[in-house]
Structure formats: C-alpha cells, structure tokens
Amino acid sequence: MKRFLRHIISLRLLAISALLFVSGVSMFLDAKPQDKLMNRPYADLKRWHLGFSIGMHVQDISFTHNGIVSDDGQRWVAEVPNFSPGFCVNVLGALRLHKYLELRFTPGMYFGSKGVVMRDYDSDLSLKQDVKSAYVTLPLDLKISGDRMRNARPYLSAGTMFAFDISKKRRETLLFNTSDAFLCVGLGVDFYLPFFKLNPELKFCFGLTDILKHDRPDLADDPESFKMTAALKKAKQNMVVLTFYFE
Q1: Is 73's pLDDT higher than 80?
Q2: Which DSSP helix (H) or strand (E) runs through 130?
Q3: Do 229 and 51 form a contact (C-beta atoms < 8 A)?
Q4: Residue 139 sits in which domain range?
Q5: Does position 97 have pLDDT exceeding 80, yes or no?
Q6: Closest-CA residue to 79 (of 2, 146, 12)
Q7: What is the spatial distance between Cα 1 and Cα 191, in angstroms, rounded to a whole number?
Q8: How many alpha carbons lie under 13 Å from residue 240 in its C-beta half-sphere?
Q9: Is 12 helix (H, G, I), strand (E, B) or coil?
Q10: H-helix segments, 117-214
C-alpha cells in the first residue's frame, strides 16, 4: 500500500507539471493584456460534447492473505513490488445537464502490465509472474465544474468504470477474472485554447470485486503452484490514470 501511495504522489507531481505547462501555453496564446475576450466563450453552452483522450496509467493489485501454512511449513504471500506505466486511449461523449454538471461516457482501451512476486514468508523461495492486460473500459462519470476563470475551469469527477480484459490468457500460477468494476474519483482543469479545449485529468480507480480465480482444477497435478494460490483470500485491483482530453 505504501508503494502504491508513493506512486500516486509521483503521478500527482507529474500531473501538476503538466498542468503548469498547459497553463503556460494558454497564457502564451492569450498574452495580450488588453484583449479581454475569452477563448471559445460558448464552448460550455453546447448540449453535447465530443472528443477523445490519450493518457498513461499504472495498475496495482492488493492481495489479502489467509495465513495458510502448507504441510511442509511454507507460508506464501504475494505483492506487486513495482509499477509499469501503461497506455490508454478513449473517445468522449458528454451531455450537459446543468451549468456546473456534465455526464461523460468515455469508452476506451487500457494496455498495461504488472509484475506479481510470490514468496515464502520464512525463506528465500520466490516466483515472479508478469500479468499483462488489454482492457476494454466503459467509464461513466459525473463531472462537477467550478466557475470559469478566464481560460481555465477546474473540476471534480466521480463515477464507475467497467473493464473487460480481452488479452489472450495462458496457464499461470495465478489467474484473474476477465471482468472488473471500479469506483473512480478524479480532478482536472479545462483549458480553453483558441481552437479546442484541453482537459488534463488525474483519476483514481478502486476495484470493487475479487478478481482472483479460486477454483483451479487445472492445478490438481501441480501442488507447488496450488499452495501458492491457496494462500490468497482475495485480490482487488487499483489504477491511477493521467489523461489528456481534447474537445
């Protein structure tokens, strides 16, 4: 959990740097102090908004162990010791509900991987498994915006996301379900540039389901792998996503 929090902090710093960069670009494009006109003044009055996004994300798995000790005295635990950034791309469809409220549907694809390390708690025995995924995601968010400040407007978002892993699976020590559901919260800023609107957003996604497959008849003839999976009670997935929307 501490490693996941450290990675959240690093992504926050990355997001702040990106926001400062985009803010500087916006100020440069709107550098004339005597010009009081705002970029795209009617952009938020449209009933529908369309766009797309690109971004990066990291995936983590939080394991809960049941403390089972095998007949030979081994007590296996699992963790994700490091994170590998992944890539994501989405399309955007947004419906204006109110001056400050917007409903957004952003289906897309998330490509990523994570390295799971399983080790015996009382010895140096260990096994590493690379878990690769290609998720089709269906996020639905409520965007809550503040007042526009010239060419910038901050916002918060909250919603759910359903994810379906379409990557080809092979026989592994740990197997995970191909579907998951997330509770998501985010924050971002709308930057109104002369020809489009740019929205950097940092989102935190918390898995709601146990994604670990517990019924493993395929391990009946592999007792070494079976005692590793038997030591896990459940596994939940988390994501941190940094996205740039273009509208």
Answers
A1: no
A2: strand 126-145
A3: no
A4: 2-32+45-246
A5: yes
A6: 2
A7: 33
A8: 18
A9: helix
A10: none
Question: For residues 191 and 23, what is the distance between their CA atoms, to the nearest angstrom?
Answer: 7
Count of the separate structural domains present in the chain: 1
Per DSSP, what are the bridge partners of residue 143?
102, 157
Pairing of the two strands 126-145 and 152-165: antiparallel
Task: Give the type of residue at 163.
Answer: A
Query: Could you say which DSSP state residue 98 is in?
Result: S
pLDDT band at 105 (very low <50, low <70, confident <90, very high): very high
Tell whether the torsion through CA atoms of 179, 169, 216 and 64 is positive or negative. negative
Report the candidate in 88, 182, 186, 183 with the shortest Cα–Cα distance to residue 143: 186
CB of 40 within 8 A of CB of 219?
Answer: no
| pLDDT, greater one: 145 or 170 | 145
Distances in whole angstroms, Cα of residue 245 to Cα of each of 55, 93, 95, 112, 120: 9, 11, 15, 20, 44
Assign residue 89 the CATH number of its domain: 2.40.160.20
pTM of the model: 0.81
Residues 143 and 95: their CA atoms lie apart, in Å, by: 10
Please report which helix (H) or strand (E) contains residue 231, including its range. Answer: none
Residue type at 171 in one-letter notation: R
Position 81 in a domain: yes
Within a domain: residue 113?
yes
